[in-house]
Amino acid sequence: MPMFSLFSKKEKEPDFVKSKDTRLKRINLNYLSPQELLPMIDSDISCVEKLTPVNYYAIKEKYIEAFIYYTEDYQKSMLRLVFFVNEKKEQASQYYDLPYKTLSSLFSKIGKYI
Q1: With 29 labelled, which of 20, 52, 58, 62 sits at a CA distance of 20 to 30 A?
Q2: By C-alpha distance, which of 56, 102, 53 is closest to 79?
Q3: Hey, how many other C-beta atoms are within 10 angstroms of the C-beta on 70?
Q4: How many other C-beta atoms can be found within 10 angstroms of the C-beta atom of residue 81?
Q5: Which residues pair with 62 in a beta bridge?
Q6: pLDDT of 12-36, one tens digit each?
Q7: What are the CA-CA distances from residue 50 to residues 18, 22, 64, 109 (Å)?
Q8: Which has the closest alpha carbon to 84: 35, 48, 30?
Q9: Strand partners, 53
C-alpha cells in the first residue's frame, strides 16, 4: 500500500450507484488488457457483449470483474469494469451507461433472462 494513498483522489461514485433502489450484479469475464478494451468501450459499449463469463476459481491470474448496477425495472443501468492480475486490482474503468439491449445480453450469458 503506497504511503500517501490516503490522500489520493478517488473517483466519485454517481448518485445512481449509491441509491437504495439500485441493485448490483457482479460478473467475472475473460481478461482483455485495459489498453485494448477501454478505447473500444469508449467508441461502442456493445463490445462488452463479446467478452465471455469465466469461473473465478478456475482463472484467478487474470480476469475482469464487471459491476453492473441496475434498477428493479432495468430501465437504467451502469457498468464499471475492474481489471485484476494475480488477484490484485490493476485498474478500474469509469462508470458507463449501459443500454437495455447490452444489459440483457450480459445477463443472458449467466442465465438471467430479462
Answers
A1: 20
A2: 102
A3: 22
A4: 24
A5: 85
A6: 777 777 788 899 999 999 998 999 9
A7: 28, 25, 13, 10
A8: 30
A9: 29
Per-residue DSSP letters for 1-49?
--TTGGGS--PPPPHHHH-TT-EEEEEEE----HHHHHHHHHH-GGGGG
Q: Are 102 and 81 in contact (CB under 8 A)?
A: no
Residue with cell 448518485: 15
Mean pLDDT taken over the chain: 86
Beta bridge partners of 25: 68
Confidence of residue 93 (pLDDT cuts 50, 70, 90): very high
If DSSP codes are grouped into helix, strand and coil, which group holds residue 59? Answer: coil
User: Which distant-in-sequence residues (6+ apart) come within 8 Å of 62 by Cβ?
Assistant: 31, 84, 85, 86
**pLDDT bracket for residue 39 (50, 70, 90):** very high
- For 70-79, write each residue's pLDDT tens digit: 999 999 999 9
